[in-house]
Amino acid sequence: MRKRIVVFLILLTMLLPFVLTGCGSEKEDAEFVLPETKNLTPFEFTGAKPSHLRDMLHKDDGTVTQAEYKFVEENNDYILYFNTDRLDIALCKKGQNGQQDEFWYSNPTDDVISQGGGLSGEMKSQLQMLVLDKKKQAQSPNKTTYADCVAKQPENLEKEQPQYYITKTEDGHLKVIYIIGQLQKNYIIPTIISKAYVDDMIKAYKDKGVSSVGMNISNNYKVITYEEWNSGKLTEKKKQDYINTVPSLAEIDESWEPAYILTNDKIYNSEYLATQIQGYFVDYGYTEQMRDEDNQKNGVEARVPNVYWLPLSYSLEDDGLKVTMKDDEIVYNTSRYDIYNIEVMKYFGAGTQQEDGYLVIPDGPGAMIKFNNGKVQQKDPVRITMYGNDMGNIDPMAAQTKQGYLPVWGIKKQNSSLFTIIEDGSAISTVIADVSRTSGSTINPVNYVYSQYRLVDYDEMELFGEGYKLRAYQLNRSTCDIVLKYTVLSGEKHEYSDMAAYYRDYLMKRNVLKDQTASANIPFNLELEGGIEDYSAFMGISYSYISSLTSFDDAQLILDELLSKGVKNINVKYRGWANNGMANQIFDRVNVLSELGGKKGFNDLMAYAKEKGITIYPETELLVVYEDKLLDSFNSHNDVSRKISRDNAILMQYDLMTLSQWRRGALVLRPKTLKAASEKLLESLQKMNLDTVDLGTIGYILNGDYNIKAVYDRSMIQTLYNEIIANYSNAGIKLAADGGNVYMLPGTTAMFNLPNLSSEYYVTDATIPFYQMVIHGMIPYSGEAINQSGDPKTSLLNAVEFGAGLFYRWMYQENSAMKDIYFEDLYSLYYGAWINDATVDYTRYNNELGHTAALKMVDHERLTDMLAMTVYEDGTTVYVNYGEEDATYNNVVIKAKDYKVIKGVA
Amino acid sequence: MNDFKLALHNYLEKFKFIFYVMLHPFKGFWDLKHEKKGSKAVAITLSLLYVLSGIIYDQFAAYSFNPMAANPENINMFESLLSTVIVLLLWCYSNWGLTTLFDGEGSVKDVFLYTTVALVPLILYNLIMAPLTNILSIDEANIISTLQTFSYLWAGILLYTGTMTTHQYGTIRTLIIIIFIILGMLLIMFMSIMFFFLLQTLFNVGYVIYRELTLRY
């Protein structure tokens, strides 16, 4: 008896998954309709100004084909033109004070396009995208607005079914609606039909003298009989294909009536063929109702249209051209398809092979790519993921480039430059740049930089343990609009330093940056490591304890020593001082570690710092949690962000020796918990009278939460971060930022770890201090820790070139205290080994350049590969020589591996 | 109360007898089995002492002779306990299983008793060495290795005479049977590993179901 019960129970557990999958409610497919087109008012080209003519193609016989760009609108500085055939635009910056007008075009000329080979369709497009077919679990090839929309307009216009509309927005600006994909009619063509019916039909036509019907049908249809199905003549793969089109074939038996099955799905792509075949059937009396009945009886799915309605609008504002793509206006069949990524205005301002100039990309601090620099050995363009990789999706080791901190890029040409800011949608963007390449496997005739937006992401989900993978898709499309602002900088000022100055003003106008009075000393940024949880064992029984690396008293000793050696403007980030130390618990309250000296010790340290003019930012790691202890408010099931694959999102620490295994994973809080924790933490900080804090990894990590119950895409998370940061700065708390994604800027009073090096990707030519030029004199910042760099001397020179403070990561204990503790960024930390060099370097740096700390950085130039020049507001110039030999520039001798300051007169 | 005192007295007597066995193995092992001078309690105490003495050595012996001392966090009491128990069990059952087939006279209990006696030299070595290594210098390492060899030899002799006396085997036969006992242990281990693999597969099925459920809801 008992045995029977056991067997029954086992069977029950085995059946459970099937029962459950059966129960799952499938989402009802909403009927998909494109928006109504009757109410669209066409945009009227007033002709208030003459059209702009552009030379498109120089023919061999010397004649030139021109394209007409119609006048759209103008303001004080800009005029917008639009070409109604290709739907591309021309942006004109009016020449002031007798300068000439500067034109920038969204697409290259035909001269250039003709060199593009297979890229020509793409180069004529304003948008291009990759589409996910969720049913086939595949990606479709690139769709472009030219090949899949504009080029089809003439034939579709005849059918009064336009592929695009030139219309206007509510406030009268130009708006182009692209319908990408084949607009398909509802053809009355059977997918499965009884053999007898068709044979009769063919015979009837033959009697009438039309003999081609039989052949046309047999070309596109196949007769399936029960005998043939089981005869073994059909391969399994073929059978599966047929079952995919006609599901009822899976249950074929002797009662199966011989039938014709549509095998050539491509007839729908050919208007001619489809109409012809429809004609045969309809003329014989076949109706839509009969088709639907046959389909229903055999489980054939109705054809799903694969069409995308993409509106793109252009409007002129005082500071340039605003290009907008509103999320809620995008329409397509979401039940089956989704847009994986979309590229907007890829070729806007692209530099040709004849032009001179460079691209500026937000690679870490910023990087420069000269036009046509010939670095074509590597196939791929450089891709800068804005605000870092999404830990909710990507393996962090996959990152090959530094992340983008500022959502901007620039293209500089001879007489003007085009500077672009992503005003909305930056959280899902990637900035991509490449130089022209005329040889090799990929041919690309222009130098471009543009942005790509990931609307729906997917991940592989492993279901059955042994290698069977399924794609899981982001449940909802990312909800942000895409808004780009293109500004033309013309006249004398259009180098990258001017772009930075322009962006600084742009941020100040929007109150993101505030003109703070910075200290007139170079910042000395210091990260102190407090305590960390460590494990030991006595007599074979293990226990954990907090290992004190820098207690509050130790910290005071270090600071005392620094002060006595003349270091000024010290900013300290104190890590691991509360809540279980560096491997922290959730920070929704503050529990100062007694091992470091407890609350009293901490208060004493803060009082000491205040007295000496040192700012200490205790780090409260908001985003990630290493330790889920019993009885805290954190629950590792409910409070964690999910990846698209539905697993917990984990921030990994890599073993630097092997770069593969992770040693310590930190769980990423889900937005709801994060918000609640940030509010509670704020209260605790206020209770402790703290007015400075470092919120940890949110400075450089932007993480989506793809929990199927409530998806928070990255743009929503960015909004949440903005709220949190606003809350803190409204409460009068000064923030230190780690890394410094642009959303951190309001409220930030010190920046740690803002890289002084770009990823130095092959195709780039130089790292430039773009970010540094934006914030210099406003927010004190420093680069990567000098004591952890491979070459401290070069790191120091980097800091001098980039106007950065010195950054050290120290602890009081000797390095052996970190034995067996795996944290990626914790090595070479003993302060005693570094403090002498650090103070000597700092003293010289501060003596010679201290006064520039409060000034703006106005110019920077790479004079040679090894020599760089930085200029400040007052004319102070710094030359930095990275070379092994002395260098001379304008009669200034700069020693090898050294810097030279020429003080300004002002 | 008297019962307890009596039991304690008995226990101590039997514990003392262990040292007699060590010095007079043939007579001692005979008495252990036939005169009922051994007890399970003593044997269990000895096994635990063996584990404990190993840990004491790892924890306290000087670094020069014992690299473990630098990483006390790697010493795990439960691991040592488990591995000792598993090896002892394997030895006892493999021993009993084989000797029963080949006219051995010992039961599992007898095997267990004489085996734990053979552990005593090792226990003594660990306990003596833990303090001694802190006094000796690395130049005197040969004293330690001599003592180690001696204790292992002693343990080996005890195990051998134990097997011989308990099962009433001849000299050569004992040697052969010990080799086969070790092979038997390997065989049992192999079977259990197979079993664990099967169990794991079964566990995977359950896990897949669990995972499918958690992914869905």
Keywords:
heterodimer; A: 906 residues; seven-stranded antiparallel beta sheet; 46 strands; 23% helix; B: 217 residues; mainly alpha; 7 helices; 0% strand
Task: Please report the two chains with the greatest interface, counting residues with C-beta closer than 8 angstroms to the partner's C-beta.
Answer: A-B, 21 and 26 residues
The span between the termini of chain B is 62 Å
Strand content of chain A: 25-35%
| Subunit arrangement of the protein | heterodimer
Q: Which structural category do the helix and sheet elements of chain B fall into?
A: mainly alpha
E-strand count of chain B: 0
The end-to-end distance of chain A, rounded to whole angstroms, is: 100 Å
SS summary, helix count of chain B = 7
Separate helix tally of chain A: 18
Unreliable spans of chain A: 19-29
Q: Percent helix among the residues of chain A? A: 10-25%
Average pLDDT reading of chain A: 87
**Can you tell me the residue ranges of chain B where pLDDT is under 50 for at least 5 consecutive residues?**
none
Shape of chain B: globular
Helix content range of chain B: over 70%
Q: Gyration radius of chain B, to the nearest Å?
A: 21 Å
